[in-house]
Amino acid sequence: MGALRNPVRLIPLLFAAAIALGTALLMLPFATVDGNGTTLTTALFTSTSAVAVTGLIVVDTATYWSPFGKLVILLLFQIGGFGIMTAATIFGLMAGRGFGLRDRMATEVERNRLSGGDARSVLMLVLKITLLVEGLVAAILVARLMLAYDYGFRDALWHGVFHSVSAFNNAGFSSYSDSVMGFQHDGVFLGPIMLAVVITALGFPVMQDLRANGLRWRKWTLHTKITVTGTLVLVALGFVVILASEWSNPDTLGPMGVGAKLLNAAFHSVMPRTAGFNSLDVGAFNSETLLWNYVLMFIGGGSAGTAGGIKITTFFVLAAVVLSEVGGRRDAGLFQRRFGAGIERQALTVFFAASTLIIAASMFILAVSDLPMERVLFEAISAFSTVGLSTGITADLPVSAQLVLCVLMFVGRVGTITVATALALGAEPRPFRHPEENPIVG
């Protein structure tokens, strides 16, 4: 009963229930093309990947699942994305308000709820932005498929809506067997997908701030400044690194013209941070490109959105702490604002926990398979960060390894919200402090 009264504990239970329901629906005989149903492992993995808006697959979405099965998958990542954005935004309000904890916690957090007006306001904002962005992107994609590729309206509508919903929720699922590789020369198709991914990767607190204050930098919150700046820096660096390292690769950018190279480098600088669509063969990337993808996937996108990873704010808080320590400054901060010690500890906790989980999962997968570490580590980071990119090894992994990836996807998606909120809300003042003593570091 305690879990049911506590929203921080309730969120994992709700997502687990959604995964269980999705698994049951995908195991129905008419969910597959052959009408024979699927295995528990395949259904569980697909459902977890969809609800966690990851995009990793063990079977080809386009050819394995029936129209019913594909519709179930679409609904799962729509529900998962909407639930994540709503829960993360509400918990962010609970944890980040500027009120006295002992005064407002008694009326809101200890009763385990925000006011009805706050919750409704967040819910309506999320719903409005979801419908607006998904509708606009779907309209562009449908028109493009009909006008440039001679699709009939029904097929164009299905593929356009599927990719629009998947992009907005950063799910990375595609209704095509090769993801979006068939559109690698089409900026009109890839551009809206990139835009939808970037928008939701910012997170809803940033969207709300931008809606209220526009481009007036001085009025932005520190969270918005860090998220927007970090996004621009990571996308720009990713673009340069991928363009340079893959420029002459005959299996990726090599055969393309300059315009297509620029387009696909930009596309793949956005996708590893959260989404998982690929217009290039990720398995053919050079080692230096894969290494940079590790970084982009691990950092992820903005908080209180559908992006995964440890989040931009976590990374930049830690980077600021390191720079302040190197520079001999007592306080760490950015944009003329100082970070509190609690935020620094939370960022360090998230970073350490994520690193530990990824390393432990990678070691297990290496022990039960004969795959190279480079690809296994890529798969583990992609699963934890709910990115969905793969070098092509997911279906070849043993069942035990696929189940470990399921755990990573669930913890990486739901666990980051609950852990961060619990850390922010769970600090209790002690009536005493131990004597201080400093061990030798370094």
TrEMBL record:
GO biological process entries: metal ion transport
Residues that span the membrane, as ranges: 12-31, 43-65, 71-95, 122-147, 187-206, 226-245, 294-326, 347-368, 399-425
Listed GO CC annotations: plasma membrane
Organism expressing this protein natively: Alteriqipengyuania halimionae
Pfam families named among the record's database cross-references: TrkH (PF02386)
GO MF term list: monoatomic cation transmembrane transporter activity
Main location: membrane
Protein keywords: Cell membrane, Ion transport, Membrane, Transmembrane, Transmembrane helix, Transport
Record-given protein name: TrkH family potassium uptake protein
Subcellular location field: Cell membrane
Membrane topology classification: Multi-pass membrane protein
InterPro entries tied to this protein: Cat_transpt
